[in-house]
Specification:
The complex is a heterodimer.
Chain A lengths: L4 E3 L2 E4 L5 E6 L6 E8 L3 E9 L2 E5 L6 E5 L5 E5 L8 E8 L8 E2 L3 E5 L1
Parallel strand pairs in A: 2-11
Antiparallel strand pairs in A: 1-3, 3-8, 4-5, 4-9, 5-6, 7-8, 9-10, 9-11
Chain B lengths: L2 E5 L2 E5 L4 E8 L6 E6 L5 E7 L5 E3 L5 E5 L4 E6 L8 E11 L3 E8 L3 E6 L1
Parallel strand pairs in B: 2-11
Antiparallel strand pairs in B: 1-3, 3-8, 4-5, 4-9, 6-7, 7-8, 9-10, 9-11
The chains are: A mainly beta, B mainly beta.
Chain lengths: 113, 118
């Protein structure tokens, strides 16, 4: 158990819909990272937050947004969903801003039908 | 920009045999390099990392990797494979900002699925 909790584990929705994925980092970790894993794109970095502030951005679509709340949990919002958004979304956390060691959650499997 | 190439999407070995998973990277600055393992239905777990210092890095579960700057490689090895090593392995490089500080943006290779036969 990495200590990173992601909910829900599975999500099935339709095209055009909006969903929210939730992540609780390990106790004490200030950084949260979101990654997308798909068969065609592999593992891709989406975005990082550190203590409530956006710290780094990857290939995150404009239809996607994220935030980190004062209690340090994070949410990834995906809107106007398309079939191609179907993927496994991972959250990871680390103690600080240097990613010397990331702890990954078990992911949310999103299926867009 | 950094990039990672893992040679071989599938590697199959017999139990007790040497495991060698290949990784080559491209980076314009001194890289931080990582190997992660993903077991079925689980998140990624860090095996080992190279940041600075000794180029031979030892990790968990008997794995090690050697950073070779001249070859831009960071191959993962284990002398004797065990059935429990069957998983997908990812090599990753860190995106370093100016000043050499890593900010958590990992670029992953496509992954290598390791199969271990009895």
């Amino acid at each position: 158990d990495s200590g990173v909790t992601q909910t829900p584990k599975h999500l099935i929705t339709a095209t055009g819909q909006r969903v929210t994925l939730r992540c609780s980092p390990r106790s004490g970790d200030l950084s949260v990272y979101w990654y997308q894993q798909s068969l065609d794109q592999g593992l891709q970095f989406l975005i990082q937050y550190y203590n409530g502030e956006e710290r780094a951005k990857g290939n995150i679509l404009e239809r996607f947004s994220a935030q980190q709340f004062p209690d340090l949990h994070s949410e990834l919002n995906l809107s106007s969903l398309e079939l191609g958004d179907s993927a496994l979304y991972f959250c990871a956390s680390s103690a600080g801003t240097a990613n010397e060691k990331l702890f990954f959650g078990s992911g949310t499997q999103l299926s867009v039908l | 920009a950094q990039s990672v190439t893992q040679l071989g999407s599938h590697v199959s070995v017999s139990e007790g045999a040497l495991v060698l998973l290949r990784c080559n990277y491209s980076s314009s600055v001194p890289p931080y390099l990582f190997w992660y393992v993903q077991y079925p239905n689980q998140g990624l777990q860090l095996l080992l990392k190279y940041t600075t210092g000794a180029t031979l890095v030892k990790g968990i579960n008997g794995f090690e990797a050697e950073f070779k700057k001249s070859e831009t490689s960071f191959h993962l090895t284990k002398p004797s494979a065990h059935m429990s090593d069957a998983a997908e392995y990812f090599c990753a490089v860190s995106d370093l900002e100016a000043g050499g500080t890593s900010y958590g943006k990992l670029t992953f290779g496509q992954g290598t699925i390791l199969t271990v036969h009895p």
